[in-house]
Amino acid sequence: MGDNLGPQENRRHYIFRNISRQKNNPCIIMGILNITPDSFHSESRRFQLEDSIKRGIEIWDYGATWLDIGGESTRPGAEPVDIDEELRRVIPAIKSLKEIRPEGLISIDTRRAVVAREAIKAGAEMINDISGFSDPEMIDVVIETGCAVCVMHMQGEPEKMQENPEYENCVDEVSSFLFSKVQQLLDSGHPKELIVIDPGIGFGKLLNHNIELMKNIHLLTQSNFSTLLGVSRKSMIGQITGKQKTEDRLPGTLATSAFAFYNDIDIIRVHDIDENVDLMKVLSELN
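The chain above was modelled as a monomer; its predicted structure follows.
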């Protein structure tokens, strides 16, 4: 996975749980760092470099294995960010954080191959592509760099993805999409140990779609690929609980994290690191 991680075989078990998955192991925590002014949860925004670096270190110190850095909001209704602006937001933060904490694992949350390539050069070890390779050059970046990759399903574009998403069979369509993208990686020789799949909760999906996907998550977790679940403070939780403000959705988020623990999810992508780490410690001990 490049010079930053050293020999792959020595670190893969640390990155993705399913390399040696054991029942009731805690989920790996991926902490969210949004270097944006408009991400849906205001508390996750860090738009100044100094603040971004401080928050990134906090996320690791709280116990997150992965730090997921994004420079473009992909909330429903969000407008695209210019590539140069996205690079300006994320690359200095990645370089600075790797200088301070060389062993820290960083994922770059981007849809663009240009940004992904520069992020890997700067020290990131994983590409988190919410668009499932909408940029045809993204697979080339993954293969050429040998980095880890998370492939997510999204119907439509963030600007309009929630206007009227439709599926004939949401579970079948999402899983088929993910496995087809994964097969492209495998056919190119990319190790399955470095591939993560994500159903994309809330991305071009209504509440019933999200619930259906989570109730059938075994179709992904039993596929021999690591599985990531990102539900933290999303509208799905607000719709179920009636909590309109994202600030009020932590209890509902922790419920989905417990769901992830009991359903063999490998990685949870969350805003609240300390609380989720504690949850995993207690559940692991009780089991």
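The CA atoms of residues 144 and 178 lie 21 Å apart.
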